[in-house]
Amino acid sequence: MKEKTGKLTPREKQFCSFYVNSGNLKEAAICAGFHQPEKNGAALLLREDINKEIERIYRSRMRNYRQRARAGYERLAFGNVSDAVRLMFEDNPLDKDLETYDLFNVAEIKRPKDGAMEIKFFDRIKALEKLECAEEEEENNVSRFYSALVEGTRQQHNMTVPDRFGEEAEGAEI
Fold first, then answer.
1. CB–CB of 81/102 below 8 Å?
2. Cβ atoms 19, 26 nearer than 8 A
3. pLDDT digits (tens, 9 = 90+) for 99-132
4. Contact (CB, 8 A) for 169 and 161
5. What structural domains and CATH numbers belong to the chain?
């Protein structure tokens, strides 16, 4: 396989996507339709453009997973339980009725022999704690970035300058 520059082919993009999914070089090359999958997969991974595409796909998916997880925790923490309560009071709910209910917050439903119904919900406090942890992590990442930016600016301004005798003074401010 020759070194390429420019745009990736559709098959190369598929390889990148399959590789992010499986982490398996041979499997990704087979799924993307390459002959001699071990040889061609290894050759692909040596290319900088392929590695950049793999990293781009990975970062995009991680960002999407975090957003989906956050949305799920928000739904657990603040979601409505009225459909679950309505379900408790129905004698014999039909399957078509159940499909219209929002039971996202329901962890477990039991119907003991006495005919009653027991519904357990996901823990809202734990969902709120997870949201708080995610927010703190986000703030820490922003503050780390801000600190690095400030430090870089400081270093840029604290350059060495010659003193009045022509020798450089370390750390003198301009």
1. no
2. no
3. 888 889 999 988 888 878 889 999 999 999 998 9
4. yes
5. 1-70 (1.10.10)
